Amino acid sequence: MAKTSITAIATIILMCAGNALAQTQQAPLPDVTVTAPAVTPNSTPGVVAPTEQNPYAGRNRVEENMFVERPCSETRMSSSAGGKCLEGYHLATGYDMSSPCHIQLSVVTTSTATHTFEADTFVFDPYLVTSGGPLPKGCHVGKERAYDLSRLQDMNSMTRRGTNWRNYIDNEDDGSRSAEYSDGRLNCVALRRLGPNWQGGVIWSVHAAICRLDGAPVQPSDVHAMLSSLKIRVYDSVGNLRPASQSTAEMTVE
Fold first, then answer.
1. 190: nearest Cα among 173, 214, 166
2. 192 or 91, which is more confident?
3. pLDDT of 169 above 60
4. Backbone angles phi and psi of 9, in degrees to 5
5. Per-residue pLDDT reduced to its tens digit, 103-125
6. Are 162 and 156 in contact (CB under 8 A)?
7. How far apart are CA 69 and CA 85, in angstroms?
8. What mean pLDDT is predicted for residues 45-63?
9. CA 39, CA 144: separation in Å to the nearest integer?
10. I need a surface site. Which of 39, 153, 223, 242 has the fewest CB within 10 A?
11. In terms of Cα–Cα distance, which of 179, 182, 172, 121 is closest to 151?
12. 163-170 and 204-212 as β-strands: parallel, antiparallel, unpaired?
């Protein structure tokens, strides 16, 4: 009799537990309102604001506070005038971040007795050979034919302070762009230059801003001095199985 009672009690307990579980599972879900966080323009591939056009996968806007300062001997761009060098994003063509094209964004900033400037480069080593073999033939830095005044204005921290933009020049022959602007009392010039042609694009592109410290207009000689001081290290030493002697080591900007 005692054994039967114990079995009956256990059965009742299991039935009650099962009913409670069923009720819990069948309980209606509460209404939930989810607000997605705002997406920062250009923070993800395909999200592009008008002044932050992005021909590459990932971010390609110069954001100095997010870049890492490196010795200028270790970055892909430096200046004979000295200054500070920053390593920016590693980029890829298209929207495939696994692309082996290894485009690097590097930045240099410096000041002299007469002017201050900031320049950046997108550069890749066309002769790079990794454990996966040579680069695909389609690798290149894009010529960005849509590069316009809005891109110059949003180029870096110097140009984003700019006002009174004027004398915009779009040279379709060589892809160069330039415009004058003001930064307080300073007169400045923003510009773009393209490097040697390669597979429908170029090996490197340079974007730069230069301001005269004495308030005088920026002269062509100022621009030439700044550009000629730049050295672009085309050879990519990271994971490269090809020795530097078999590649293009450095290029200058004219």
1. 166
2. 192
3. yes
4. -65, -45
5. 899 999 999 999 999 999 999 99
6. no
7. 6
8. 51
9. 24
10. 39
11. 179
12. unpaired
